[in-house]
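Take just one protein record:
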Amino acid sequence: MLNSFWQSFSALSLQGQLFFGFALFVAFAFEFINGFHDTANAVTTVIYTKTLRPTPAVLFSGLCNFLGVLLGGTAVAFSIVNLLPVDLLIESASTRAIVMVVSLLLAGVIWNLGTWWLGLPVSSSHTLIGSILGVGLANSLLTRGDVSGVNWTKARDVGMSLLISPMVGFISAAVLLLIMRRSLKDQRLFHPPGEGDDPPRWIRGVLLATCGGVSFAHGSNDGQKGMGLILLALIGFLPTYYALDMHHAHTAESVHAAALEIQRTLEADAVLQTGTIAADIAQVTAGLQGADSFADVPPDQRWEMRHAILRLRNDLAASPLSAETRAAIAPLVKRLLGATEYVPLWVVVGVALALGIGTTIGYQRIVVTVAEKIGKTHMTYAQGAAAEVVAAVTIGLADVYHLPVSTTHVLSSGVAGTMWANKSGLQADTIRKIGLAWALTLPAAILLAATLFTVGGWLIPGAQPGNRVVNSSPAEVAVPLVPAGVPAVGIGR
């Protein structure tokens, strides 16, 4: 298996190999920055309610982030990947694809670092998604004169989750605090802690649990965004190695059997097969006949096999199947997608380490903004608990529905909601700055990524629109675009 990786890597030019290493470095750097940029929100409440001192608070949060990435699954990663059809990268010249990946990574890092320096709790989700949209739009406009370079259906779903989640955070945290005021009689919960005060033991436990919950949920959700970035780089640079999951035995055999079973199910139900469905089933079954692992598939056939599987999935989703037939083939389709939607284990562990370590560094700027500059009074125990409970639940639900949401916006809007409900008052200047950053992040990231990609495309030899780089990698072969659909979950090595 290692030989196969080195064969794919060696097919890249020296420039491509250097850019590949740089792209991976920047992708992991994005997650490292995400750690101290976003997770600062999770430790704000435990620090300012004196539940934990700063050092143990960030170490605890970093550990929970690490575990969240490891245990949180991979579905959100494919929501990110599917924003920009990966096939667009392969359709482009290999050098141009490299510039595209590096541009979106650099745009995310630049904006995140800039807003962190200003102490603004800006969403890394907005930044990442804007960067992906920027390179997709720029490439599409330059090469085809249209805006088809973005999966607009997936972009709409992601955009709605990012738009609604801050409202959910504000309203839910405010309502929860009001409920707590009516039902809990201990008035210490609703007054800012004084010098030398310690929170009641049970509220300390709640705040520790919610801090851990927010950190775990952040690791699960935001860690998967980092996985999505790295997958864009891996598939874009090394399509013959990462187009299919070659790391597990019997995967090809399982997909072959699933395709045959889908064919039998459609025939038994007398469903009229379109020519595309029939052709793709035939291609999958013929190409995988006798294969155990996808490593047994010749390298020059792997990308076409990936396309056949994705086309089959999309055509089945669009076909007028009965409810019974659709239910019968659902687990079979999931088996098909396990071949294309997986995350190598080293990527999961690497992202977990980057996010966890990043959490322990540079958190102070965002912590001060959230705790001291949103409201006009010091945060109370009840406010901290309400904001973090809402954040943990909201982000956890987003994981269930495979939606990327902003930890920053959910928790900071939750803090604002508790300040409003507590009649503590809001600092208009801070709210205005956060709101302005929220509004500008998406267009700024789009513009920054598009600019980097356009300039890089013209300055770097071989990356201009229409140019192609000749090498032994199938990345140079033009292939039709395949719309992305509902992601499946799978982890490879």
Observations:
- The first strand starts at residue 343 and ends at 344.
- The longest helix spans residues 201-237.
- Residues 49 and 193 are 7 Å apart (CA to CA).
- The two ends are 11 Å apart (CA to CA).
